[in-house]
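User: For documentation purposes, I need each entry recorded in a consistent format: the amino acid sequence on its own, followed directly by the corresponding structure tokens. There are two entries in this batch. Please keep commentary to a minimum and don't merge the entries.

Assistant: Recorded as requested. Entry 1:
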Amino acid sequence: MSGPMFSGSITALITPFRDGQLDEDAFQRFVEWQVEEGTDALVSCGTTGESPTLSHEEDMRVTALCIEAAKGKAPVIAGTGSNSTEEAIMLTRHAKQAGADAALIVTPYYNKPTQEGLYQHYRAIHDAVEIPILIYNIPGRSIVDMSVETMARLAELPNIVGVKDSTADLTRPARTRAAIGKDFAQLSGEDGTVVPFLAQGGHGCISVTANVAPRLCAELHDAWKERDFDKVSELNDRLMPLHQALFIESNPAPVKFAAKLLGHCDDELRLPMVRIQPATQEKVRSAMVHAGLLN
């Protein structure tokens, strides 16, 4: 490999709902807008897409709708993880059949596998489905934290191509690069740490903020690649209050409200997620004004 398979600004897409059902038209319009705004790749059915409350049929439908709307203009990475290995294999097989470019597979949550269990989980999926796989390491939600050593073992498998790192540990990209090499795609899962993550050897970000500021996020990554650090700093300053505001309450409630302010979809969520409180609404709105997204 001559470089990482994925880099730049990658949007962890919201899943619009209306009256409890998927809002398919709004979702596909949203995907088309993301591509037009310069997003480098798209993730369907991740945490931000409320995957825990999607049925299997809905999950597969959202991935198919995303691939259809992207029209090959941006790669689609399908979220196919589960704490059941067989379920993850099933969803990953569907993603492959639907035409996804890769699968994003979260470390198993709740059942707390050991490092050997993590290795065997990902190896089983890798061996069952021939598709590029990104490891999604998010100990804040999954409780388990995949070690750099386990990730290095997995990276020896040909289709394990990178990681979405949501540890917020800024030593990780440097340590992972030392253990695995520079071609292993390292993508931050924490918008607020994206610049230091890149500085430590990362390649991009799977972003919540890019749902509502896709062009600004893409421009930041482009500026980084061009080594225009003044522009990187300017964009980072514009975006930082928004990164923070979108996590005052649990994701994706704030970003759905922000998307509603831009007219993309309703801010409806599925229980146990609920709409954000008025005080949070004001903070989100203010951060969007600061970023230049609203007047």
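Entry 2:
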Amino acid sequence: MLKQVGSKCKEGRTRQQDPVVKNFNDGVAIVAGGSGGIGSAICKALAASGSDVALTYRSRKDAADDVVTEIERHGRTALARQVDHTDSLAMKSFADDVAASFGRIHSVVYAAGPSIPMKFVNAITPPEWKQVFDVDVNGAFNVVWACLPHLKAGGGGAFAAVITAAVEKVPMRDICSAAPKAAIQMLMRGIALEEGRYGIRANCVSPGFIDAGLGAELIHETGIETWVDGIRQRLPMKKFGDAEDVAEAVVFLLSHRAKYITGQSLAVDGGLQL
């Protein structure tokens, strides 16, 4: 049985919020990986834009509880469950329960992914390669497989996958990030191509160096400050992004403002790909 946390409250909306609330008039957004640094920012941005949110988390219950609290502060309903995305039946059970609770799923965000080894290709072992693909690519597919029927049943909706700017410009030792995210990018394009006739869109957001989640761990790692500063100086904008930068791009692509945008990847990278 799906645990429900919080309750929907329609009180206290300001006039300034009304145009934003209209982005999501009914139903719920699912955020797979909603307890992470970027995933949590997406959950909060969706709630601020008028959407109820159902999120999955892997192990960080405390972080998921904090996200639920933030969603409630925006007067929205929050649902949370610990789900292993590599377990297709567990993911389907979650999606089915969310649809039963809310009546409609209007958006699905894949914002999850494993920790990755920062290694040269010649140092990556077959088990390491297999693990990142099993967790990330298969996990993303299971999210799509579980949620797509509900979007179609509800008359359409939107997918958004958080990938990486490295799919266009791969830094050394980052292939274990770029390769699986490139596969997820192709998955989103396939959905856009095949499901557009049913009112379903699918896009990607490609973060560069973001001071949140795994990116923050790298940026603030001790002993590599000179390397990190060199990366910052090579960026046209001379600064790293934050989780809110990514979240705003995701919410835009899910909203009616992007109703004729599908199959695209929006880089949120400060010009890294240039």
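Summary note for entry 2:
The longest helix spans residues 126-153.
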